[in-house]
Amino acid sequence: MTQIELSRTVASVATEVPGAADLFRRHGINFCCGGGSTIESAAGEARIDAGALVGDLETLLCLARRDVPENTVDLIECLLTRYHAVHRSELEWLIPLAQKVERVHGGHTEAPIGLAILLQRIQGDLEEHMRKEELVLFPMMTRSDTVSIVHMVAQMQREHAVEALYVVNLEHLTNGFAPPVGACNSWNVLYAGLKKFVEDLVQHMHLENEVLFPRYTT
After folding, report:
1. Cα 198 to the center of its chain, rounded Å
2. Which residues in 66-82 are b (16+ Cβ under 10 Å) and which e?
């Protein structure tokens, strides 16, 4: 199991460990504006035990890998149906809903101005990324074309790093997916949907980076 070092930054852990973002929010740890802080320093500022925080994060890592298919073909199928298809479906309704909230509530001090444009950028990049996996990488894996896989995996990991930055940007724009007091139903549904989308995306990247890819690169 991957160990969480105290020197890791809050932002890197929040975008790589499924469930870490919620854990940080509960402790009042900001991984957006304060994302450059280390786990150790963030724990100190929050007045919590750094060792206990790391223990909670490592528990989340264990939970993230629970019920993950052992067979590579089954794992790839899980990624395709549980994550690729779901990301596509959710972005199709999240983007117009974000446009609506920005249009109707643009004058509100907490309006997520620029959210719809960011989601469209995410949709474009994520679609291109997933298609590379579906049409090139995953078929290579089923053929065990290991020489070519190493280079392709490195490219996918670089693209995951970009997607991780999008996660931080979404956190910032939505105030941690917390709508303002008195927000309308559309605003509440939008933020709830975005929170779920981001949690899925982090889990998706984790399964690829830490479970699937090492089967071909180590």
Report:
1. 5
2. eeeeeebeebbebbeee
CA–CA distance, 191 with 77 (Å, rounded to integer): 28
Q: What does the CA dihedral 45, 51, 53, 54 come to, rounded to 10 degrees?
A: 120
Share of the chain above pLDDT 70, in %: 96
Q: How far is CA 211 from the centre of its chain?
A: 16
Contact 20, 57 (CB under 8 A): yes
* Distance from C-alpha of 122 to C-alpha of 117, rounded to nearest angstrom: 9
Give the CA dihedral 170, 176, 181, 186, nearest 10 degrees. Answer: 40
Going by C-beta distance under 8 Å and a sequence separation of 6 or more, which residues neighbour residue 97? 186, 189, 190, 193
What pLDDT does residue 1 have? 44
Nearest to 83, CA basis, from 134, 49, 124: 134
> pTM value?
0.89
Torsion of the alpha carbons at 104, 109, 111 and 117, rounded to the nearest 10 = 110
